[in-house]
Predict the 3D structure of the following.
Amino acid sequence: MKQALFLLLVLLAGAQAAEPLRMVIIGDSTVCEYPEASPSRGWGHFIQGYFKDDIQVVNLAASGRSTKTFIAEGRWKKALEEKPRYIFIQFGHNDSHPAERPEATDAATTYPEFLRRYVDEARAIGAIPILVTPMVRRLFEGDHLRDELAPYAAAMQKVAAEKKVPLVKLHDSSKQLVEKLGETKSAELANAPTDRTHFNEKGAKAMAELVMKELPDAEPSLKAYLK
Protein backbone atom coordinates (compact mmCIF):
# COMPACT_ATOMS: atom_id res chain seq x y z
CA MET A 1 0.00 0.00 0.00
CA LYS A 2 2.78 2.41 0.97
CA GLN A 3 4.71 1.53 -2.18
CA ALA A 4 1.65 2.15 -4.36
CA LEU A 5 1.05 5.49 -2.67
CA PHE A 6 4.71 6.43 -3.19
CA LEU A 7 4.53 5.57 -6.89
CA LEU A 8 1.35 7.61 -7.26
CA LEU A 9 3.01 10.64 -5.67
CA VAL A 10 6.02 10.24 -7.97
CA LEU A 11 3.75 10.11 -11.01
CA LEU A 12 1.82 13.17 -9.88
CA ALA A 13 5.04 15.07 -9.25
CA GLY A 14 6.27 14.11 -12.71
CA ALA A 15 3.04 15.31 -14.31
CA GLN A 16 3.30 18.63 -12.51
CA ALA A 17 6.93 19.02 -13.49
CA ALA A 18 6.06 18.38 -17.14
CA GLU A 19 3.48 21.17 -17.23
CA PRO A 20 4.86 24.02 -19.37
CA LEU A 21 5.49 27.47 -17.95
CA ARG A 22 3.01 30.08 -19.13
CA MET A 23 4.08 33.22 -20.91
CA VAL A 24 1.30 35.79 -21.22
CA ILE A 25 1.45 38.59 -23.78
CA ILE A 26 -0.59 41.76 -23.25
CA GLY A 27 -0.81 44.75 -25.54
CA ASP A 28 -2.73 46.21 -28.47
CA SER A 29 -3.51 45.52 -32.14
CA THR A 30 0.16 45.39 -33.13
CA VAL A 31 0.60 42.40 -30.80
CA CYS A 32 -2.71 40.51 -30.76
CA GLU A 33 -4.11 37.46 -32.53
CA TYR A 34 -6.36 37.82 -35.58
CA PRO A 35 -8.72 35.43 -37.41
CA GLU A 36 -6.91 33.38 -40.04
CA ALA A 37 -8.83 35.12 -42.85
CA SER A 38 -7.70 38.58 -41.71
CA PRO A 39 -4.83 40.31 -43.54
CA SER A 40 -3.63 41.63 -40.17
CA ARG A 41 -1.18 39.96 -37.82
CA GLY A 42 0.40 40.91 -34.49
CA TRP A 43 3.89 39.86 -33.47
CA GLY A 44 2.50 37.90 -30.53
CA HIS A 45 1.06 35.43 -33.04
CA PHE A 46 4.56 34.15 -33.89
CA ILE A 47 6.34 34.04 -30.54
CA GLN A 48 5.44 30.45 -29.63
CA GLY A 49 7.51 29.15 -32.52
CA TYR A 50 10.73 30.39 -30.92
CA PHE A 51 10.29 28.34 -27.75
CA LYS A 52 10.50 24.70 -26.77
CA ASP A 53 7.44 22.92 -25.42
CA ASP A 54 8.50 24.01 -21.90
CA ILE A 55 6.85 27.39 -22.62
CA GLN A 56 3.17 27.92 -23.44
CA VAL A 57 2.44 31.35 -24.91
CA VAL A 58 -0.97 32.84 -24.10
CA ASN A 59 -1.61 35.95 -26.18
CA LEU A 60 -4.21 38.16 -24.46
CA ALA A 61 -3.39 41.37 -26.33
CA ALA A 62 -6.46 43.13 -27.72
CA SER A 63 -6.98 45.66 -30.49
CA GLY A 64 -7.64 49.24 -29.43
CA ARG A 65 -6.49 48.85 -25.84
CA SER A 66 -4.16 51.05 -23.85
CA THR A 67 -2.49 50.69 -20.46
CA LYS A 68 -5.64 52.23 -18.99
CA THR A 69 -8.43 50.40 -20.79
CA PHE A 70 -6.75 46.98 -20.59
CA ILE A 71 -7.08 47.24 -16.83
CA ALA A 72 -10.51 48.91 -16.83
CA GLU A 73 -12.04 46.12 -18.92
CA GLY A 74 -10.78 43.37 -16.60
CA ARG A 75 -8.30 42.03 -19.14
CA TRP A 76 -5.32 42.49 -16.82
CA LYS A 77 -7.12 40.55 -14.08
CA LYS A 78 -7.61 37.71 -16.55
CA ALA A 79 -3.92 37.81 -17.48
CA LEU A 80 -2.90 37.47 -13.83
CA GLU A 81 -5.34 34.59 -13.35
CA GLU A 82 -3.37 32.62 -15.96
CA LYS A 83 -0.61 32.42 -13.31
CA PRO A 84 2.14 33.08 -15.84
CA ARG A 85 5.84 32.88 -15.17
CA TYR A 86 6.56 35.64 -17.70
CA ILE A 87 4.47 38.57 -18.93
CA PHE A 88 5.28 40.59 -22.06
CA ILE A 89 3.85 44.12 -21.80
CA GLN A 90 3.68 46.38 -24.88
CA PHE A 91 1.41 49.44 -24.97
CA GLY A 92 1.70 52.94 -26.39
CA HIS A 93 -0.13 53.25 -29.71
CA ASN A 94 -3.56 53.82 -28.21
CA ASP A 95 -2.18 55.58 -25.15
CA SER A 96 -0.90 58.24 -27.57
CA HIS A 97 -4.36 59.07 -28.95
CA PRO A 98 -5.79 62.60 -28.40
CA ALA A 99 -6.39 63.39 -24.74
CA GLU A 100 -10.17 63.46 -25.11
CA ARG A 101 -10.25 59.79 -26.09
CA PRO A 102 -11.06 57.37 -23.22
CA GLU A 103 -8.02 55.18 -23.93
CA ALA A 104 -5.51 58.07 -23.96
CA THR A 105 -2.84 58.46 -21.29
CA ASP A 106 -0.14 61.06 -20.77
CA ALA A 107 3.43 59.96 -21.49
CA ALA A 108 4.77 61.96 -18.56
CA THR A 109 2.24 60.97 -15.89
CA THR A 110 -0.54 58.39 -16.27
CA TYR A 111 1.24 56.12 -18.76
CA PRO A 112 4.23 55.40 -16.48
CA GLU A 113 1.87 55.13 -13.50
CA PHE A 114 -0.05 52.34 -15.22
CA LEU A 115 3.19 50.64 -16.25
CA ARG A 116 4.36 50.63 -12.63
CA ARG A 117 1.08 49.01 -11.64
CA TYR A 118 1.57 46.25 -14.23
CA VAL A 119 5.09 45.61 -12.97
CA ASP A 120 4.15 45.59 -9.29
CA GLU A 121 1.11 43.37 -9.71
CA ALA A 122 2.96 40.94 -11.98
CA ARG A 123 5.70 40.57 -9.40
CA ALA A 124 3.13 40.17 -6.63
CA ILE A 125 2.01 36.84 -8.17
CA GLY A 126 5.59 35.70 -8.77
CA ALA A 127 5.69 36.54 -12.49
CA ILE A 128 8.56 38.22 -14.33
CA PRO A 129 7.35 41.29 -16.28
CA ILE A 130 9.14 42.13 -19.52
CA LEU A 131 8.49 45.58 -20.96
CA VAL A 132 8.51 46.04 -24.75
CA THR A 133 8.64 49.59 -26.08
CA PRO A 134 6.03 50.28 -28.80
CA MET A 135 7.32 49.97 -32.35
CA VAL A 136 7.24 53.04 -34.60
CA ARG A 137 4.46 54.04 -36.91
CA ARG A 138 5.65 54.17 -40.50
CA LEU A 139 5.09 57.91 -40.95
CA PHE A 140 7.80 59.48 -43.07
CA GLU A 141 8.94 63.05 -43.46
CA GLY A 142 11.47 62.83 -46.26
CA ASP A 143 13.89 60.02 -45.41
CA HIS A 144 13.15 60.05 -41.68
CA LEU A 145 10.27 59.01 -39.49
CA ARG A 146 7.91 61.33 -37.67
CA ASP A 147 8.39 59.61 -34.36
CA GLU A 148 5.10 60.18 -32.53
CA LEU A 149 5.66 57.37 -30.06
CA ALA A 150 9.10 58.46 -28.85
CA PRO A 151 7.76 60.00 -25.59
CA TYR A 152 6.00 56.75 -24.69
CA ALA A 153 9.03 54.62 -25.51
CA ALA A 154 11.20 56.93 -23.39
CA ALA A 155 8.73 56.78 -20.50
CA MET A 156 8.68 52.98 -20.59
CA GLN A 157 12.47 52.89 -20.65
CA LYS A 158 12.57 55.08 -17.53
CA VAL A 159 10.12 52.80 -15.71
CA ALA A 160 12.22 49.77 -16.68
CA ALA A 161 15.34 51.41 -15.24
CA GLU A 162 13.53 52.57 -12.10
CA LYS A 163 11.93 49.19 -11.43
CA LYS A 164 14.82 47.10 -12.76
CA VAL A 165 12.57 45.38 -15.28
CA PRO A 166 13.80 43.48 -18.36
CA LEU A 167 13.34 45.74 -21.39
CA VAL A 168 13.12 45.00 -25.10
CA LYS A 169 13.76 48.19 -27.08
CA LEU A 170 11.45 47.39 -29.98
CA HIS A 171 10.91 51.08 -30.62
CA ASP A 172 14.59 51.59 -31.39
CA SER A 173 15.06 48.44 -33.44
CA SER A 174 11.87 48.96 -35.46
CA LYS A 175 12.90 52.55 -36.20
CA GLN A 176 16.25 51.35 -37.52
CA LEU A 177 14.57 48.71 -39.67
CA VAL A 178 11.86 50.98 -41.09
CA GLU A 179 14.26 53.81 -41.89
CA LYS A 180 16.62 51.34 -43.55
CA LEU A 181 13.77 50.00 -45.69
CA GLY A 182 12.44 53.47 -46.52
CA GLU A 183 8.85 54.49 -47.15
CA THR A 184 8.21 52.32 -50.20
CA LYS A 185 9.78 49.08 -48.98
CA SER A 186 8.43 49.40 -45.44
CA ALA A 187 4.91 49.55 -46.94
CA GLU A 188 5.41 45.84 -47.72
CA LEU A 189 5.04 45.20 -43.97
CA ALA A 190 1.57 46.77 -43.81
CA ASN A 191 -1.79 45.00 -43.67
CA ALA A 192 -3.27 47.59 -46.07
CA PRO A 193 -1.73 50.12 -48.51
CA THR A 194 -2.65 53.18 -46.43
CA ASP A 195 -2.06 51.67 -42.96
CA ARG A 196 1.08 53.03 -41.27
CA THR A 197 0.63 51.21 -37.95
CA HIS A 198 -0.55 47.62 -38.40
CA PHE A 199 1.14 44.63 -39.98
CA ASN A 200 0.63 41.79 -42.37
CA GLU A 201 2.31 38.44 -41.74
CA LYS A 202 5.65 39.63 -43.11
CA GLY A 203 5.60 42.73 -40.91
CA ALA A 204 4.51 40.91 -37.75
CA LYS A 205 7.18 38.27 -38.24
CA ALA A 206 9.76 41.03 -38.66
CA MET A 207 8.67 42.57 -35.34
CA ALA A 208 8.72 39.17 -33.63
CA GLU A 209 12.25 38.63 -34.89
CA LEU A 210 13.33 41.99 -33.45
CA VAL A 211 11.77 41.13 -30.09
CA MET A 212 13.39 37.71 -29.94
CA LYS A 213 16.80 39.05 -30.98
CA GLU A 214 16.94 41.15 -27.79
CA LEU A 215 15.02 38.89 -25.43
CA PRO A 216 17.79 36.49 -24.33
CA ASP A 217 19.94 39.40 -23.16
CA ALA A 218 16.99 41.24 -21.60
CA GLU A 219 15.87 38.17 -19.61
CA PRO A 220 18.64 35.53 -19.54
CA SER A 221 16.48 32.97 -17.71
CA LEU A 222 14.60 32.41 -20.98
CA LYS A 223 17.69 31.18 -22.85
CA ALA A 224 17.11 27.62 -21.63
CA TYR A 225 13.68 27.54 -23.26
CA LEU A 226 14.65 28.76 -26.72
CA LYS A 227 14.72 26.33 -29.63
In short: Residues 128 and 147 are 29 Å apart (CA to CA). The first helix runs from residue 2 to 18. Residues 6-15 have pLDDT under 50 and may be disordered.
